[in-house]
Write the structure tokens for this entry.
Amino acid sequence: MTHLELFEKYDELVNKWEYEMGPISSVSQMMDCDTYRELRALGPEIVPFIISDFYHDDFHHLTQLIVEFSGEDDIVPERDWGKINRIANWYVWWGRNKGLLNLTYEETIAYNVGTDAGKALIEDAILGPIKYIVENGEDEEMITMYTAVSRKSDKDIREQIESYKQSLQDKTTNDE
């Protein structure tokens, strides 16, 4: 199976799995279905797809497949369990460090959603982590993690943070 065929099969199964699961929140029920088993059968080659999906979707329950394939169950620190954005960031950081995710943040989004549709999403995806960092008190660990994930310099990230904060101030001033 080619890389593209594998991605298309993965995408098809993830969509089917999400449809079948609907509002179910039980991880054991999510893992105990034929479609999940079909995803697992695709093998560890799908790990980069799962990780790249964290950029624009909430596939946090597929992290169990990463754990199964990698044998690593300590990717996310216990203090971040249940925090979807932080879980996603940890897995992306882990994937980059393992060499599983070699595209830039923007390239990954564009690759997954298509060039035209990706433009608006890329803008939101770039601002999203910065907004999250600012709203959560500019946690140094998050800044460091985002720097690693985005492959941007610490200085660039801090400039984006300041720019975002300035835009918030400008908006507040204009609204008054």
About this structure: Confidence is low (pLDDT under 50) at residues 109-119.
